[in-house]
Amino acid sequence: MQRWELSAFDRKHLALVSVPRPAPGPGEALVAVDSVSLNYRDNLIMANRLGAEPPLPLVPASGWPAWSLMLARIVGVNA
């Protein structure tokens, strides 16, 4: 699968990377998300100006409005 990942602070380090598809555990569902929103907070995180340094690499996407969740679809379930 692919995801946008920040490997170091600064927007120039934001890259689309390929990572292994996670396997759901018992009682979990794997969901494909078609869209998320990025907002001003994500810009602050990428610039390391939020006041708390999150662990890297990270996937920026702090805004998940209801319409984005409605675009999600179940890909696999392991119960």
Summarize the structure.
The protein is α+β, with helices and mostly antiparallel strands and 79 residues long.
How many alpha or pi helices? 2
Order of helices and strands: EEEHHE
Please give the radius of gyration in angstroms: 14 Å
Compute the number of strand runs.
4
Mean pLDDT: 76
**Which percent range describes the beta-strand content?**
25-35%
Query: Spans of 5+ residues with little confidence (pLDDT < 50)?
Result: 65-72
Helix content: 10-25%
Strand order of the largest sheet: 1-2
The largest β sheet comes out as: 2 strands, antiparallel
End-to-end CA span: 22 Å
Structural class: alpha+beta
Q: So what's the overall shape?
A: elongated
Number of domains: 1
What would your notes on this structure say?
With 79 residues, the protein is an alpha+beta fold. The protein has one domain. Helices cover 15% and strands 27% of the residues. The chain is built from two helices and four strands, in the order E-E-E-H-H-E. It has helices spanning 40-46, 66-70, and strands at 2-6, 14-18, 28-32, 73-78. The strands form two sheets. The chain has a two-stranded antiparallel ribbon. A two-stranded antiparallel sheet has the order 3-4. Strand 1 and strand 2 (14-18) form a beta hairpin. The longest helix has 7 residues, at 40-46. It is elongated, with a radius of gyration of 14 Å. The two termini are 22 Å apart. Mean pLDDT is 76; it is low at 65-72.
